[in-house]
């Protein structure tokens, strides 16, 4: 673990471009009396290969941060740079293309297509990437194997346990080989044994494939898998900690 | 891109067969209704044409009643009499044959068989004018016509029903209160328009009809055959002048009789069936429209139901136009499929109904192609609004949707 932290620290201190940069990001809902500052001037940078846990009490702005990171939402003020590009200046389609090519999502509720086999669920992002059928099937099978679900290609979500569904969701997120994986409480619906399996899987992707991961969680033992931790409260970052630092 | 959209559409349709089935039901019913009506309408038109083709060539009919009325019998205008017929024979050139006709149903009895056929009093010329051929026996001779002897020529229905095994020629049957000897059998004319049987007929000399059966001298209609098609207008004009003179109707005044040729009769009948077909088609088109609205309705509901799916697609990186295209393709595929099923059911339905209502089954490729194209178009048009709604969903809201 320490070795890994050290590399991240080296990358961090070097002249390398951050993958993600939040620069005084605000997200404000409503006006006047009912104004809610979901994000209240947040700045941070994440470098390639990092595994970041975002923590904080409910309503502190974690999901809002993830939505902006995921290009599903845009800041009310401030800038979000992804690979140096200001996402706020992109059109809706531009952000969709960014998601398609660079991002992978894992949700608390799995969000798999019901009555659709694991293989077809995995094909979906590849179809939007215009990857032809043969290659698509190969990549989908490979990804299922990586999450330990080979042999379950033809199972629909209803035929899989919660842990297995989340593995399919992770496989779907990584099948396109994204530069950033975003996971909003991915273990929120799983028991602790299942949660640790999922976290081990994510840690493996981070270490072996250099996948950058940003993960939201409530739980310290889950956050412990990451090598950097950002704590939110009331839309502000209240603490940043680095493993081994 | 399009192949991928097709693939995703097929997968979505397959994912919820129940919903897909309900979506297409309206289209199936609408298209089937249109196909049945248009096919039977075409059959009726074909039948009218055939029927008119079977009638005597160059035939002109003279019936009582004003120009605005259709039939002769129901008219309050005075019928004709023999003097009219004689005058026509004497004064009008370019005629081939003239056949005065009186019609009424009478009871007919032979052995223990009882029927009530149409009985027609006329003269041998009817065979020329109406193009009715005698296949067994003979027509009336001059003496029989002049003295009104009760001899009769029977239609094929009467022959088959009343003389199933016996030879009808020379047999004596009772008609009304009189008895008559069968001297001939008419060629079958087949089923008539709207189910009437033209072969359920007994033809007797006009004079016999008047004296022995109806007891009246009236003549219901006069059939006239012009020497050629070109002569028809002249004969009609002459008839008009003659009849106005005989019935004391001033030139320009509304006559109380009708002079028609078959071209007119043909247009008139085709107009009637045409109006009917148009009317029914309009009803069918409305049902197709309702089917389209049904598609829109169910697709709108399905957009709500599929909010999460749409959210997933958008999060994964689907463009607005890709989601839109997928929904449109789904709608078009469903409605085109509904169209195909509707066409099949409609043709089968028409095939089943046609013999029941005595109309030929006329298959029209153009109608089928139009119905198919229209149903696919209905899907696209009515699928547009739901598709746009789906494409414009906010991915965050859509993913949060329960
Ligand atoms: N669409 C929205 N409209 C209004 N307020 C919102 C909306 N989304 C989030 N909020 C508010 O912003 C704050 C932060 O929310 P969120 O980022 O979801 O918190 P967390 O994920 O940390 O629990 C909360 O007070 C929440 O009520
Ligand atoms: Mg949250």
For the biggest β-sheet of chain A, the strand order reads: 6-7-8-3-9-10
> What are the segments of chain B in which pLDDT stays under 50 over at least 5 consecutive residues?
67-74
The overall pLDDT average of chain A reads 92
Approximate strand percentage of chain A: 25-35%
Looking at the overall shape, the CATH architecture of chain A is 3-Layer(aba) Sandwich
Q: How much is the radius of gyration of chain A in Å?
A: 18 Å
Average of per-residue pLDDT values of chain B: 86
- The CATH H-level homologous superfamily of chain A: P-loop containing nucleotide triphosphate hydrolases
Tally of individual domains of chain A: 1
Q: What percentage of residues of chain B falls in helices of 4 or more residues?
A: 55-70%
By DSSP (H or I, 4+ residues per run), the number of helices of chain A equals 8
Please tell me what the overall shape of chain A is: globular
Which structural class best describes the helix and strand composition of chain A?
alpha/beta
Specify the CATH class of chain A.
Answer: Alpha Beta
Strand-residue proportion of chain B: 15-25%
Which overall shape of chain B is indicated by the principal axes computed on the Cα atoms? elongated
Given as residue ranges, the uncertain stretches of chain A (5+ residues, pLDDT < 50) are 1-13
Distance between the termini of chain A: 12 Å
The end-to-end distance of chain B, rounded to whole angstroms, is: 30 Å
How many H/I helices of chain B?
13
How many beta-strand runs of chain A?
10
């Amino acid at each position: 673990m320490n070795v890994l932290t050290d590399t991240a620290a080296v990358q961090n201190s070097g002249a390398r471009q951050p993958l993600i940069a939040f620069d005084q990001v605000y997200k404000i809902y409503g006006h006047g009396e009912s104004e809610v500052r979901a994000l209240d001037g947040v700045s941070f940078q994440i470098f390639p290969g990092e595994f970041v846990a975002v923590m904080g009490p409910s309503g502190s702005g974690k999901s809002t941060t993830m939505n902006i990171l995921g290009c599903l939402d845009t800041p009310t003020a401030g800038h979000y740079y992804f690979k140096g590009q200001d996402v706020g200046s992109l059109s809706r389609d531009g952000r969709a293309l960014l998601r398609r090519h660079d991002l992978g999502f894992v949700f608390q509720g799995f969000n798999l297509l019901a009555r659709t086999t694991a293989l077809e669920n995995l094909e979906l992002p590849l179809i939007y990437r215009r990857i032809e059928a043969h290659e698509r099937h190969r990549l989908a099978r490979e990804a299922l194997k990586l999450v330990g679900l080979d042999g379950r290609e033809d199972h629909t979500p209803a035929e899989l346990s919660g842990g297995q569904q989340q593995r399919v969701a992770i496989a779907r997120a990584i099948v396109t080989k994204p530069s950033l994986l975003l996971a909003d409480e991915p273990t929120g619906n799983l028991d602790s044994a299942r949660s640790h399996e999922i976290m081990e899987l994510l840690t493996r992707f981070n270490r072996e494939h250099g996948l950058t991961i940003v993960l939201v969680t409530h739980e310290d033992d889950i956050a412990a898998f990451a090598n950097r931790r950002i704590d939110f409260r009331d839309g502000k970052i209240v603490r940043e900690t680095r493993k081994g630092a | 891109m399009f192949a991928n959209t097709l693939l995703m559409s097929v997968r979505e349709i397959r994912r919820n067969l129940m919903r897909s089935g309900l979506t297409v039901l309206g289209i199936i019913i609408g298209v089937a209704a249109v196909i049945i009506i248009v096919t039977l309408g075409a059959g009726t038109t074909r039948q009218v044409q055939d029927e008119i083709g079977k009638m005597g060539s160059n035939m002109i009919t003279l019936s009582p009643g004003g120009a605005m009325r259709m039939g002769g019998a129901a008219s309050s205008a005075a019928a004709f009499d023999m003097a009219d017929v004689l005058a026509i024979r004497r004064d009008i050139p370019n005629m081939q044959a003239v056949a005065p006709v009186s019609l009424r149903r009478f009871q007919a009895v032979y052995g223990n068989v009882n029927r009530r056929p149409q009985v027609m009093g006329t003269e041998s010329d009817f065979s020329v004018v109406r193009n009715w051929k005698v296949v067994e026996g003979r027509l009336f001779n001059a003496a029989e016509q002049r003295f009104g002897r009760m001899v009769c020529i029977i239609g094929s229905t009467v022959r088959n029903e009343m003389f199933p095994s016996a030879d009808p020629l020379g047999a004596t049957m009772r008609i009304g209160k009189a008895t008559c000897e069968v001297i001939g059998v008419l060629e079958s004319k087949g089923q008539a328009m709207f189910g009437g049987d033209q072969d359920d007929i007994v033809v007797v000399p006009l004079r016999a009809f008047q004296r022995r059966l109806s007891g009246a001298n009236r003549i219901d209609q006069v059939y006239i055959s012009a020497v050629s098609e070109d002569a028809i207008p002249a004969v009609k004009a002459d008839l008009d002048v003659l009849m106005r003179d005989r019935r004391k109707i001033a030139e320009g005044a509304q006559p109380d009789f009708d002079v028609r040729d078959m071209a007119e009769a043909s247009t008139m009948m085709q107009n009637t069936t045409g109006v009917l077909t148009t009317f029914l088609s309009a009803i069918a088109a409305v049902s197709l429209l309702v089917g389209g609205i049904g598609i829109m309705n169910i697709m709108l509901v399905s957009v709500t139901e599929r909010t999460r799916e749409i959210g997933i697609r958008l999060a994964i990186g689907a463009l607005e136009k890709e989601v839109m295209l997928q929904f449109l393709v789904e709608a078009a595929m469903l409605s085109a499929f509904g169209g195909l099923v509707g066409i099949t059911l409609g043709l089968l339905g028409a095939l089943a109904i046609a013999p029941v209502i005595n109309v030929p089954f006329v298959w029209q490729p153009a109608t089928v192609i139009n119905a198919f194209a229209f149903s696919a178009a209905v899907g696209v048009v009515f699928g547009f609004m739901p598709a746009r709604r789906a494409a414009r969903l906010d991915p965050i809201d859509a993913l949060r949707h329960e």
